[in-house]
Structures are given as structure tokens and as C-alpha cells.
Amino acid sequence: MSKEQIALEIEKLRKTLREHNHRYYVLHQPVIGDQEFDQLMKQLQQLEAENPEFFDPTSPTVHVGSDISNEFEQKEHQYPMLSLDNTYNEAELLDFDKRVGKGLGGQQYSYSAELKFDGISISLIYENRQLAYAVTRGDGVKGDIVTNNVKTIRSIPLKIASATAPANFEIRGEIFMPRAVFEALNEERREAADEPFANPRNAAAGSVKLLKSAEVAKRKLDCYLYNLYTPVPISDSHYQSLQMAAGWGFKISPYSKKCDTIKDVLAYINYWDQKRDSLPFDIDGIVIKVDSLAQQSELGFTAKIPRWAISYKFKAEQVTTELLSVSYQVGRTGAITPVANLKPVQLSGSTVRRASLHNADQIQLLDLHEHDIVCIEKGGEIIPKVTGVEKHSRASDAKPVVFISRCPECNAQLVREEGEAKHFCPNADSCPPQIKGKIEHFISRKAMNIETLGEGRIDTLYEKGIIKNVADLYYIKYGQIIGLEKTYNAEDGSKPRIVRFQDKTVNNILQNIEASKQTPFERVLFALGIRHIGQTAARKLAQHFKNIDAIKNSTIEQLTAVDDIGEVMAQSVLAWFSVPNNAIIVERLREAGVQMQIKEDTNKVVSEKLKGKSIVVSGSFSSPQRRKELEQMVIANGGKLVDSVTSKTSFIVAGENMGPSKLQKAKELNIDVIDEKTFLNFLEY
Ligand code: IVH
Fold first, then answer.
1. Are both 245 and 177 inside the same structural domain?
2. pLDDT < 50 regions, the chain
């Protein structure tokens, strides 16, 4: 293809991908499948990588983000980013309507009633119909420039195709994380023993400020735009202007409603107060805006807020009850979570007995005292939380709740590392809930999938001294567990639960354990429960290092060189392998037949990236095995492996101490000599 043809092809692909993005992320009407989309995206990525002169900051490939660290600069807002007056009741809303009516001196007016998205506000500045800046609200006057991160949000157009749009304009809206994305992210974080986000809002706020936009891209954020600022108004109606912006490709809320009277607004509020759970994202209220832009400027602003808009906040469901005690749970990583035990109380249709207190700071912040009357709230989270204390009803001699200093399960001195919100029990090897938690994680479905061993059975086997770590599972004998029995009394006084090990169960368990020996290495690595190493990280490590010994013997630099593995993860891996007991566990698992290396189909062709190319692999690499792997990669990607350098050689992958004659020949024939990293980058390994 000539350069002109390549340029045309790139433009064609960009246009097609923009259209599909808009159809998928804004209109929710995709016309092609994910796989087809990904293939087009890959094609474009490859063409752009091979022809960097055609770089375009608005290309759909930019949505994928980059690994370059963003240090945020700040930018002043052209119009201050104000907040809104809040109200929680109808009477105040009627007062607002009266003030508006009075302010407009008897003119007719209407409202735009909109959902109040619970995320973080963003200002998007378009110059020459291209996204030039994305700025956070900051202090209202100036905010952080987070353009690279925001460019990863696929519903935000990077380039406006419509000629009806002004060349330069600003549009503001709310970046949020859809609930399903939030649930999946937290599930992943829990599996990696990372602290889950408290709610989708926090997750969205944290994601927008991440330092690597490639990480932001994975967070699957979304954005509804709700205010447009053009040099010349395109319509006097705010509602109408947004409809026009929808035509330029922006995601505009389909839930907004033009209301002629405040009565219509109240009906809208009531409707969404009932129905908000059915939305795929969180809202925390309704925003009511006078619709006419002329009337908006007539009403103007106070020092802090517009007089033409107000937000009606939904009341979070709350109750008060007595704090009976505080107990402390120990997780599988040793993280301590304080839990409030409460006098049972009804809240949104269920009886609440316990509520989360998160960590020591939270207890201090609440200034919690024994037997306080506490306020319980059910937010987006499933477990209710303590949000306040009624200090006036506290006894004068009430004692403050003091966070424990020793582990409630094993009495070890707790530690709190710098930057960590939680206290930890460091006694990983002999603290019972940590041991049981690790075994439960090991047998879980996404790990070794030994489903017949549920939580109760693990507990019994541990209590009876049959298993003390995950390796012990593989040495269980039929005779040891047949007939075991343990009764668990329920906390709420309901029927006790009896865990029995009968013939059929025992056989199933043993078969399940045996079958788990075939679990692929990447899942074994995840199952080991190394802190911060979730499924994805485990897969990346397994694919890169191929076997457990290579991981164990790696350095921080080698670990962080792997895609997606950061410093914290790398440290955690090395820390895990440095514990002598963990090394013993790995050896016993290996002896039992558990997979400690990836199974590779050496003849499988995975791509045609090297089709028609003759490649020499020469010199020494980190190990002889590594050299073999590189050679296999040549073949797996459709290339031809050759021994000697000739004029037909396409390039040389060189390790250290490549033979001088080969090097000389390469120079003479002008053949590229590349290192391992460049080669892997090219193959996108
Ligand atoms: S209009 C001057 N509309 O709520 C008008 N805001 O306290 C400014 N928000 O910071 C905002 N949904 O982040 C507007 N449909 C909506 C909104 C909305 C959510 C947020 C926004 C703002 C806060 C107001």
C-alpha cells in the first residue's frame, strides 16, 4: 500500500470505529458484535503503530489510554463551576418556585427536570471541534486537567463530525461508574485482597485521577452531559440545546423532562424516588433548572449558586438504634474490620443487626462511645453503615470505643502500615481466620474450583487439625475424614447446622481435589492468594514467566516490566515468596501434581504478524529456556526461524554476547538488530 492508501485506510477505519462507538456507548444500538469491533480496533492500532506519522489525538485508539504517567496541571474555568442549592422537601421546592416566579415578574416559564447523577463533574472544552481539555471541578475556579484519562471514556466524542456544531464550545457533565462495572471491579479487588471502593461515586472519582490512562480505560467509566456553553446560544431552551448536542454525538440523558409547572416537577421527583433502583447507575436526587437561557441570566447567581436551579436530594434510608458492642473481623489477608453490633432495627424492609465501621479512623471520626445511639444508613452498598451518632443522648460517663491493639483471634500485636487505612494481623501463618480464609480462597470457583469443599467443611477440617494450609488438601486420606461431624449453632437461634462427611461426600471431595490438579498454572497462581494479585495479574505473570520458579527468582525490575504489574504488586509477590512456609507449600503442591508451569501448545499459530519474515534469534537471554520461548514465538506468529544471517534475513532478535561475525554481517547487509523487549512489544506480548 502506498502512503496515500494507508492514510485513506486509517481514516476510513477511524470513521467506522467512531460510528460504532457512538452506536454502542451513546445510542445503545450496536450493529456489530464485540469481536468484530475489537478486530477493527486492532487493525487500526497496527496501522497507526506502523505509520506513526499519521498520529491523531482524536483517533478512537486513544480511548484505550496510555501508560505514560499523568501529572495533573491545572486550568482556570471560563465560567466558575458552581454547586447547587440543596433541598430535601417539597415545601422548600415550592418556595424555590415562588422565588423564580417573583424574579421573573410574572413571565411564563418552564423547567427542565433532570436526574442528579452521582459521580464527579467534568468540563469538556472543544476547540476546532476536537476535545482539547477535560478539567475537573477542583475548587470551582480552577481544576485538574485530566484530558488523557477522560479520552478513554468511549461515550465522549474526541472529534465532532457534525458541521452544525460550533467550532469552539464547552460542555459539562458527570462522569460516573455504572453499577455493574462497580460490582465487577470490587469483586476483582476483593479477590486480590485489595480494599473495595465504598460506592460507585468513590470508584469513579478515584479512577479519573489515576496516573495511567491505560488503567482508567479498564475502569469503563461513562459520562452524561448536562450543560452546554456556546459563544452564541444555539437555542434559548437549555433542554433543546442539549438535544442538539445529542445530535453532535454527546451522551445526553434520555430521562430529562420538560415540565411546565412545579407540580409536574414534583410528579417527576416522586416517580424517580420510587424507580431509581431500576437505573443502571446511582443518582442522589433530581436537578431542576429554569429552561430558558434568557430567564436564567435574568435570575442570575448569588455569590455561590445559581438562582435558576436547585437540587432535590433523595433522603437516604436511615434509622437510629443502640450500639450494643463492636466486634472485629479478621480477613484472609489479616485485615481487621470493625463491625457494630446493633439492637435489631428495621431498615428498608429488612432487620439490621450489624453495620460496618470500616476502620479505626472511622470510629475516631464518629467519636463513637459505648452504647451510643447511632444512625444507620443504607446507601448503594449492601451492608448498612454507621453514619452518625446522637451525642445528646449519650450518658455522661460513657466510655469511648477504643480500637483493639491485638488480634481478637490469635492475640498478635496489630500493625498499621503507612498509607493503609486498615490495621493488620501480621501472624499470617497461625492466625486461624487467615488460614481458613486462604484455604477458602484457594478452593473457590475462580481459583482451584474444589466446590464440594464449602466454607463449613473447610472449617471442620481445620478445627479437626486435618488441614493447616492449602497443600494439606492434597494429602487428605479417605480414612481421615470419613465420619467426621461438626455442629454449628446459628447466631439467630434458628436450627443448628450439622456438617457431616459421609461416604458419597468424601468420595466427591477426593475426586474434586484430584481433578483440581489439572487446573491451569495461571489459576493456581491466583489461588495462592498473594495480596494484590487478582486473576488478571496472575494470568499476566503466568504468561510472562511461564513457571513458578521464574516468578520466585525474579527481581522487582523484571516483575514491573510485565504489562499491568505495578510496584505494589511486585513487592507483594516477592514478599510472598520470601516467606519460608510459602516456599514449602509450593513444593508440596508441586509434589502432589498441581500445575506449576503453563502448558503451551508449541505448534499453535497465534498470529500472522511475522508472516513472510525470516528471523534469527541469537546471543544469550535470561535463560536457555527463554531463548527457546522466543524461538517458539517466531513460529507461533507465522515467522520462519533461520540460523544464519543472509540478505533474506528480516531482522535479528539479539540477546547478550551475540556472535561478532553475525553482528558484522548484519551491519554489512543493513539488517535490523532488535532486543527482546522491542520484539515482545512488536508482538504485543
Ligand atoms: S447542573 C450551575 N445538572 O450535582 C449548575 N448538575 O451540586 C451546575 N450533577 O457539581 C450543575 N447531575 O456534579 C447539574 N443533571 C445535572 C446534574 C448535576 C449531577 C452534579 C454536578 C454538580 C452537583 C451540584
1. yes
2. none
